[in-house]
Amino acid sequence: xxxxxxxxxxxxxxxxxxxxxxxxxxxxxxxxxxxxxxxxxxxxxxxxxxxxxxxxxxxxxxxxxxxxxxxxxxxxxxxxxxxxxxxxxxxxxxxxxxxxxxxxxxxxxxxxxxxxxxxxxxxxxxxxxxxxxxxxxxxxxxxxxxxxxxxxxxxxxxxxxxxxxxxxxxxxxxxxxxxxxxxxxxxxxxxxxxxxxxxxxxxxxxxxxxxxxxxxxxxxxxxxxxxxxxxxxxxxxxxx
Length: 240
Description:
By secondary structure, this protein is of the alpha+beta class. It has nine helices and nine strands. The protein has helices at residues 11-18, 26-44, 54-58, 99-111, 122-127, 134-149, 194-202, 209-214, 219-234, and strands at residues 49-53, 72-77, 80-85, 115-118, 151-156, 167-171, 173-177, 188-192, 204-208. The chain has a four-stranded antiparallel beta sheet with strand order 2-3-5-6. It has a three-stranded antiparallel beta sheet with strand order 4-8-7. Strands 1-9 form a two-stranded antiparallel ribbon. The relative contact order is 0.17.
């Protein structure tokens, strides 16, 4: 039209124009492939297990970034209570920051050590199927800063008729030397606080890492999956 000829329209363009609801995004395809892999490995009894710590299964971190002036977060689940105090400079952990405790707990259980060693920061990104790009590395740096600076209080609330009162206040880490570059040549060393390490060793909660990969971009769905995994792990009989 108007004297301008157009080449043949691609099938993808025709489909997008006529039936956009039939198109599947790259992200959705990746999710579907991940779900298939989870089911396949579960049927084969060949799951790749990671671990989480009990406080963050029973009472998750904030799903979204809290306001900058909010440095205290509290979450309750029955008789359990979790309080997180953020660092004045870095703020409260939130969203995908919850992957850091999973990574730390998993590496600690695998290495059976309070001192965790790994070759590069990409080990964590690979564990959760995340891209090894600059954006993800910057996000990882910020997540570790918020986690390192946060103080946790976890315990049972006597007002909730808890049979046993247990309370602990701790930081995640006591020391960390992390090279965030892909090829740094330096070893990454993270030392867990004694309290966090003891909690992980006493109550390591298993989780399917392939399923975690599928849910990595949906913190709320990930929390629900981890809680259901915990309930199945601790169940003594069939529950409705």
